Amino acid sequence: MDTLHHTENGAALAANQVGILKRLIVIDYCNYYYKLINPKIVGSSGVQECIEGCLSFPNHFVKTIRPQKVTVQALNENGEEILISGEGEMAKCFCHEIEHLNGEIFLDKAIEEVDLNDTTTVFL
């Protein structure tokens, strides 16, 4: 969590991104840290187009297609089983970080490269 807190523009982090071989993700969303152990997506619905980056690939952005809503089953930091749902940006974060734990990266989901310096690109 300290690594995420001290990282510029970081919204989430999987433990294996910083050399910790545990199935743990941390998501900083609206100034609340979600700490999930052994998370897995157990439901999803809808579709959204996203612009995505990653702390492991600085200054690299792609367009992806993600579920609009996901439900995640995990243990919280007290070892209690929880179900948590997220929509939009939160759904994207859940998918992205859980994929890290499964050995996947956002580039695997890329449908198009994005140049954030291109002033003709419009982001909605």
From TrEMBL:
Gene3D superfamilies: Peptide deformylase. Keywords: Iron. One of its GO terms (molecular function) is peptide deformylase activity. InterPro entries: Peptide_deformylase, Peptide_deformylase_sf. It holds the Pfam family Pep_deformylase. Belongs to the polypeptide deformylase family. This is Peptide deformylase. It comes from Lachnoclostridium phytofermentans. The lineage of its organism: Bacteria, Bacillati, Bacillota, Clostridia, Lachnospirales.
